[in-house]
Amino acid sequence: MITVAGLSNALSGFVKGYMKMENPPIKVIACPPYNDQFGGVNIWSSLQMPYGVPVPTIIDPGNAALLAIEEFAKNNPELADRYLAEQKRLEEKVLVENSSEKCENCEKSE
Question: What burial class does residue 9 get, using C-beta atoms within 10 Å of its C-beta: 0-12 exposed, 13-18 middle, 19+ buried?
Answer without folding.
Answer: buried
